[in-house]
């Protein structure tokens, strides 16, 4: 299999991700990175507040992880870095139309940083073929979600003064069912997309 010329695509493992099936190189990759950043911004506005908790349920994680699986590790993490950068310069892309540096360094900032890292992790797993089967996709999403929690929960505890156990429940436990549903949905979508693409 030929190695793609565009430097944002890792060369160490030649397995393709869905984005690699599209024609073009630089223009395609820039458009996809921008597109996933915009998709994350839109998904962030799908917001279900949880009474008494500082972190709402949103559609962000689904967009982050789905985009990462489609783009691969470098483009996946770049799309989230761009999303965070858009918010930091004042565009209303964060949950509830929020923006600004204070959001990134506030209670939910760890989740935003986690998106960047999870984008790389899930993209790397997709480049190894985990997104081609239901179980692999669910496992990749679980790994990405775990990364987001691993950064977001301690950040939440430090920024709010919550006890670690309280932060773990507020920042992760209350969202496990929703995240499991997102992983199962991705497990249906991504392998189906590969089957259609390979016909």
From TrEMBL:
Locations listed in the record: Cell membrane
GO MF annotation: an example: biotin transmembrane transporter activity
Main location (coarse class): membrane
A GO CC annotation given for this chain: plasma membrane
Classification via Gene3D superfamilies: 1.10.1760.20
Keywords: Cell membrane, Membrane, Transmembrane, Transmembrane helix, Transport
Membrane topology qualifier: Multi-pass membrane protein
Membrane spanning stretches: 21-43, 55-74, 81-98, 104-126, 133-156, 168-190
UniProt-listed Pfam families: BioY
Annotated InterPro entries: BioY
Assigned protein family: Belongs to the BioY family.
Name of this protein: Biotin transporter
Source species of the chain: Antribacter soli
Lineage: Bacteria, Bacillati, Actinomycetota, Actinomycetes, Micrococcales
